[in-house]
Design brief:
It is a single chain. This protein is an alpha/beta fold. The protein has two domains: 3-171, NAD(P)-binding Rossmann-like Domain (Rossmann fold); 176-291, N-(1-d-carboxylethyl)-l-norvaline Dehydrogenase, domain 2 (Orthogonal Bundle), CATH 1.10.1040. The protein has helices at residues 15-26, 39-49, 57-63, 74-80, 106-118, 132-137, 148-161, 173-201, 206-214, 221-232, 241-258, 263-277; strands at residues 7-11, 30-35, 52-53, 66-69, 97-100, 122-128, 140-145, 162-169. Strands 3-2-1-4-5-6-7-8 form an eight-stranded mixed beta sheet, sandwiched between helices. Strand 1, helix 1 (15-26) and strand 2 form a beta-alpha-beta unit. Helix 8 (173-201) packs across helix 11 and helix 11 (241-258) packs antiparallel against helix 12 (263-277).
């Protein structure tokens, strides 16, 4: 099918989904419909892109050749793929391609693939290890799981929104790797917060400390993205505390099933849960520094 004729729909148009839709529109794809439980965001994006603000996931699937889903968790995925709900994507799955970009439990991706196939469609997980800015620029890092033929079918769209595209293997395998990526990232974030928090308590200039970190074994991608924000106490959300806790939880569930204890990941999850309990779950994950800077604890 020619690119301009492919009708693409989105279910879940938060900041990641909305920017992916904008990118595909610029690449010549026809964005036919968007749907989101946050009505105002959905209506605004639909007006911007000149497409339908769909009343349900089913309506998106009805209008689309390819549906991209970017929702928050297992529960949300279960709702939009509910097998006996006429409002779900499965109501119009026949002949459709579904690309699922959420970080969810690997088993859920497997169940969705099976359900979609029972209804005559095809499903692929495309797990993102990227930021909002990369979604807008079309430079996502995507890890894909599912049948190889489905990956090849989805490849033109995936290449339009990614700079790095990897086929991992069968359904669920990409989700496992994504969970581990986020588990390590979250642990690095918590460790960096402790290093900077201790540095402040010792009276060290934090700009100097970050420079030294960047030139030694303390260097990390997290230092580049979160170090200055921790120092400046700037926690505008790019990847939330709540999502960090969810993703570390997925990884720890996998560890429990494998019979492994991961004390660093467990301690990190405890930190993020403390922030959620303090009503700070919507802040960026860099807010874990609020628990480690002596001058901020309890503030």
């Amino acid at each position: 099918m020619d690119q301009p004729r492919i009708r693409v729909g989105f279910v879940g148009v938060g900041r990641m989904g909305a920017n992916m839709a904008r990118r595909l529109k610029e690449c010549g794809y026809r964005i036919i419909a968007v749907q989101d439980c946050h009505t105002a965001s959905m209506l605004s994006l639909a007006h911007e892109l000149g497409c339908e603000a769909a009343a349900s996931p089913a309506r998106v699937a009805e209008l689309s050749d390819t549906v991209i889903t970017v929702v928050s968790d297992d529960e949300a995925m279960g709702q939009i793929y509910a097998e006996y709900d006429p409002a779900s994507l499965l109501s119009h799955a026949k002949g459709r391609l579904f690309i699922n970009c959420a970080t969810i439990t690997p088993a859920i991706h497997m169940e969705i693939e099976q359900a979609v196939e029972r209804h005559g469609g095809a499903s692929l997980e495309a797990c993102m290890a990227s930021s909002i800015t990369q979604a807008r620029q079309g430079t996502l890092y995507l890890m894909c799981g599912g049948k190889r033929a489905v990956f090849e079918q989805a490849k033109p769209i995936l290449e339009a929104i990614s700079a790095q595209l990897r086929y991992i293997g069968k359904a669920g395998e990409a989700a496992k790797i994504k969970a581990l990526v986020n588990m390590v990232m979250n642990s690095n974030t918590a460790a960096l917060a402790e290093g900077l928090g201790l540095g402040e308590a010792l009276g060290i200039n934090l700009t100097l400390l970050r420079e030294v970190f960047s030139q030694t074994g303390a260097a990390s991608r997290v230092l580049e993205t979160d170090g200055e924000d921790m120092q400046q106490r700037a926690h505008d959300c790019f990847f939330s505390v709540a999502h960090a806790a969810k993703d570390s939880g997925i990884a720890l569930d996998l560890a429990n099933r494998a019979g492994l204890a991961l004390p660093v990941a467990e301690a990190t999850l405890t930190q993020y849960r403390r922030l959620i309990e303090a009503g700070k779950g919507d802040l960026d994950k860099s807010a874990v520094a609020e628990l480690t800077f002596k001058s901020r604890i309890g503030g």
